[in-house]
Amino acid sequence: MDRRWVGPEGLEIVPAVRAGQQVLRIRRHGWIVADCFSVEAVAMHVDLAELCEVVDFMARTSSHHR
What we know:
Strand content: 35-45%
Order of helices and strands: EEEEHE
Radius of gyration: 15 Å
Largest sheet: 5 strands, antiparallel
Oligomer: single chain
Protein name: Transposase
Structural class: mainly beta
Helix content: under 10%
Mean pLDDT: 90
Organism: Nonomuraea dietziae
Distance between the termini: 25 Å
């Protein structure tokens, strides 16, 4: 499961790899804004309080809920 965070105005932050190192990639409307090596660096670009983690829920397979 991939982790990602979204914010206002098409903002999305996803883990990525750049030059062999993990980064937090900031995208706005699909365009790369920055690759950050720390949360502090992300905070220089966006207000962290406005971010919301996207959580995927697994579908139930119980026959009771069909």
